[in-house]
Design brief:
Layout lengths: L1 H13 L5 H5 L6 H16 L1 H6 L4 H11 L4 H23 L1
Helix pairs in contact: 3-6, 5-6
């Protein structure tokens, strides 16, 4: 459970909800979001060991993040697409 807490502390520290000035910009122009997303993707790739050791199903984690970061749905979707793909591939490799 400590690992789950560490993941969410990382997310809450690095991905604050956008301010009203950020929301007024089109997403395609908001390069800060792109940099944050890339940083998150790099962190996820380095942290597969932690994520693959979690026993909580990725849908549960996704529900928690979407509740906390409603304005970051595309970011959360990217995170959990990557997580889902990794968990499915790691389950397949364990069966072999």
């Amino acid at each position: 459970m400590d690992r789950v807490v560490a993941v969410f502390q990382f997310l809450s520290f690095n991905f604050k909800e956008p301010s009203s000035s950020q929301l007024s910009l089109p997403r395609s122009v908001n390069f800060a979001n792109v940099r944050r997303l890339r940083k998150l993707q790099r962190w996820i790739r380095k942290s597969w060991g932690i994520l693959s050791d979690l026993t909580i199903h990725y849908n549960t984690i996704q529900d928690l993040v979407l509740k906390r970061y409603r304005k970051w749905r595309s970011l959360a979707h990217c995170l959990f697409t990557l997580t889902k793909e990794h968990l499915h591939s790691s389950m397949r490799s364990r069966k072999l």
